[in-house]
Amino acid sequence: MEGPLFSAVWKIAWPTMLANIIGGLQGIVDNVMVGRLVGYKGNAAIGVSWQIFIVVIVFITSLFTGMSVLVARFAGAGEPEKVDRTVYQAFLTAIGISVFIMAPVGYFASPYLLDFVNATPGVKAEALPFLRIMFMFSSGMMVFFMLGGALRSAGDARTPMVLGIATTLLNIALNVVLIRGLGPIPAYGTRGAAMGTCISSGLVSVYALVKLVNGGWVVSFPRGAGYGPDWTIIKSLFRYGLPTGIQGIAMNIGGVFMMAFIGSLAQSAAAQAAFAVSYSQLFSFVTWTSVGLMGAAATVAGQNLGAGKPERSTAAVHTAARIGLMSAAFLGIFYFFFPRQLLAVFGMNEPAVVEIGTQLLRVLSVSGLFIAVALTYTGGLQGTGDTKSPLYISIVSQVVVPLGICFVIKHTGTLQPIHIWVAILVGHVTRCALSMLRFRQGKWRGITVEIGPVAH
Question: Which of 98, 186, 107, 181 has its CA nearest to residue 141?
Answer without folding.
Answer: 98
